[in-house]
Amino acid sequence: MLSTAVLRDVRIKALRSRIWFKLSIEERSIIDLTIKCVKKVRSRVLRNVLTNIMLKILNLVEDISIKALEIGFMIARRYVFQALKWGYAKALSWLKDEAYIFHLGISCINTPPTYKHETLKTEYIE
């Protein structure tokens, strides 16, 4: 059975990862009303609807993680290229450090657009 605690956790995860408002108003309302009105979901139809919404949220959360790794890898490649130009041969190990790459990606995603423009210009990298 699906409990409100699970729904509350998924809702918090969606809010924290900025996915909550990408859902339709109907999907958000279904989750909110279920959390407020039901302790355990017994209806098969409601459970199927909630499961589909939860899968959608979790897939979007995973997409952000993958996107962070992709962006982080691009930035790490640029940093490594610049470090190699300066003669720092150990910089190649940066491309193998997944935590560093993830950090770069998340930092880039969370950077306000005003500052992002200057840091990602290709003139500064090549």
Overview of this structure, please?
The protein has 126 residues and is mainly α. It has two domains: 61 residues, no CATH class; 61 residues, no CATH class. Helices cover 70% and strands 3% of the residues. The chain is built from five helices and two strands. It has a two-stranded antiparallel sheet with strand order 1-2. α1 packs across α2, α1 packs parallel to α3 and α3 packs across α4.
Task: Kindly summarize this structure in a few lines.
The protein has helices spanning 4-16, 25-37, 44-85, 98-110, 113-119; strands at residues 2-3, 40-41. It has two domains: 2-62, no CATH class; 64-124, no CATH class. It is mainly alpha-helical.
Main beta sheet, described?
Answer: 2 strands, antiparallel
The total count of helices amounts to 5
Helix content: 55-70%
Radius of gyration: 20 Å
Q: Kindly state the number of beta strands.
A: 2
Cross-sheet strand order for the largest sheet? 1-2
Low-confidence stretches: 122-126
Q: Work out the count of structural domains.
A: 2
> Could you spell the SSE succession in H and E letters?
EHHEHHH
Helix/sheet category: mainly alpha
Strand content: under 5%
Q: For the record, give the distance between the C-alpha atoms at the N and C termini, rounded to a whole number.
A: 56 Å
Can you give the mean pLDDT?
87
